[in-house]
Write a structure and sequence with these properties.
Length: 257
């Protein structure tokens, strides 16, 4: 009977947790794999399981390292968040920081860091017999039909599982909102104390490769400026040779007869 009851409880608890996820994804920003984002931080609600007769599930949030001052370590952020969560009405049974690392054959790098909180609820936390009786009287007095629960024949059994669903919905929602408040408080305090991180600079467009020259061009010799030819000096005109007059030969004197 215990195993069957645990199975029924787990079925309805996980149904209620899925309803909480859906409500938060609609109200806030939905992410992949049933996650959701509130004020820039990603949250996740894990499935429920049974451990030592307790019903256990995890709630986690990503550590917003890109929103924190440069000098703030993720370990310090984690400690401050857990310190606040331990002051809540429902304290987590366990808390841990999980580093999710994705590796390949060539390179290994850290993808993200999470604050993980484990919550445990006993069966007595989810319903009490006085609550079951009170709800039954309400249905009978108001003539409200009891919702049908597949596999459960008795009215009391149906009311028990409905109370379990309502309790988990209320508890899980409160756990998430406590973590949201803690994240916002710690983040705001650390940013106020430290130097705010500037937004990342836009990526520069890759420079286009220059076309390769087919042959190396020989450097051209510097062109010398043409100098104007100096004006030619006129040679002095040669003096014309003076023609020498030939002396006329004296005619021989005629002889007197």
């Amino acid at each position: 009977m215990g195993a069957l009851k645990d199975h029924l409880f787990l079925q309805h608890i996980n149904k209620s947790l899925e309803q909480v996820r859906a409500e938060l994804r609609v109200k806030h920003t939905s992410k992949k794999e049933n996650r959701f984002s509130i004020k820039g931080i990603t949250y996740e609600i894990g499935p429920c399981k049974v451990e030592n007769a307790d019903f256990v599930f995890e709630i986690s949030s990503k550590i917003p390292q890109d929103m924190l001052p440069r000098r703030t370590t993720i370990e310090k952020y984690f400690r401050e968040v857990v310190k606040l969560m331990n002051k809540c009405a429902k304290r987590p049974a366990e808390s841990k920081m999980e580093n999710i690392v994705q590796s390949t054959a060539e390179v290994e790098y850290k993808e993200r860091d999470y604050v993980k909180l484990i919550y445990q609820y006993k069966e007595s936390d989810l319903y009490t017999m006085p609550e079951v009786e009170k709800r039954l009287k309400h249905h009978y007095a108001k003539r409200i039909p009891i919702p049908d629960v597949p596999g459960i024949a008795t009215p009391g059994g149906k009311i028990v599982l409905l109370l379990v669903e309502e309790a988990i919905n209320e508890f899980a929602t409160a756990n998430v909102m406590d973590l949201v408040k803690a994240n916002e408080t710690v983040k705001s305090a650390l940013v106020a104390k430290g130097e705010a991180t500037p937004p990342p600079a836009p990526k520069k467009a890759a420079a286009k490769p220059k076309p390769k020259a087919s042959a190396k061009a020989k450097p051209k010799a510097p062109v010398k400026a043409k100098s104007k030819p100096s004006p030619k000096k006129k040679k002095p005109a040669k003096a014309k040779p003076v023609a020498k007059k030939k002396a006329k030969a004296a005619k021989p004197a005629k002889r007197k007869k």
